[in-house]
Write a structure and sequence with these properties.
CATH topology of the largest domain: Ribosomal Protein S5, domain 2
Distance between the termini: 30 Å
Largest sheet: 8 strands, mixed
Order of helices and strands: EEEEHEHHHEEEHHHHEEHEE
Helix content: 25-40%
CATH architecture of the largest domain: 2-Layer Sandwich
Shape: globular
Strand content: 25-35%
Structural class: alpha+beta
CATH class of the largest domain: Alpha Beta
Amino acid sequence: MNPFTPHTLHVSAPGKLMLLGEHAVVHGRPCLVTAVDSRLHLSITLNDPVGNRFSISAPDVGVEHVEGMVADAFAGGFALAPGTRFIESALAVFHQWFPREGSIHIETRSDFSSQLGLGSSSATVACTLFALGKLFGLRLEPLQLFWLGLQAISQVQKLGSGFDLAAAIYGGTLFFSNPSPKEREIIPLNVPDLPLVVAYSGIKADTPTYVGRVAERMANWPAVVARIFDAMERLVVMGRPALENAEWSTFGQLMDIQHGLLHGLGVDTPETARLVFAARQAGAYGAKLSGAGGGDCVIVLTANDSRAEVEAALKAAGGQIVQVAPNAPGVRLED
């Protein structure tokens, strides 16, 4: 009998930046999101064709090595370590739908810190499911990966629309619509190179906390917050053709309005506001926080000949420039 040779695959998925529509997308409105070229990398090895054990090494999130039985992955909502929750949840969902025998080892590393709010959790789920499908010879279409991934993410954090997962799977720049819990519209857009500058505020945001804060504000002021979400939806509808036609001045103004609406929802901070105003005063087309708020990153749309001045203004205001490019490819096999 020939000895078994372990088989390893390497995959990666992009991070994301929300362009327009954050928070409203959690409440059934559409958004615009772009994938960025800082990627989450995952290696998966089939160590043994029999057995049902898994092990994980994820040093970027403080996990040197944990191992257990596949049947116990994220059992009862508990993971072997905080940094393995999304991998274990994805592993559990995959084996729920596609039971397979074999013991595996998973390793991850990231081009970007999980502190930046670029969607590392969704990229991890996309990589895990994509790698498992490839390892076991399954042909999983992007939309199938999306629904599996949404199930995995919802087991961990309960809240969310899936726009960041869509960006990790499809890549590029997307129009994402979330009209109901069982319905999604994911439309890849033909967008020219986005002249974005990204700056980290220095504050790590807690996404579930800020999503919950907006939900609380909606419960207290339903008519007012619904109108804000309606306005955000209109910005997305107007922003889509502006993006596709490279009408940067128009799109920048829409970004400015979106930031004002986010401030009204209570998710702006002095740190992000300082960066936004610094970028505008340096001549940017527009600037806004990107994501849940409470910190994380600010995105700035600026002409290339103003980029150096805008970056200098952001640094002077306490920002850390994050070197990423938009329109990155989605989850993929690597050499």
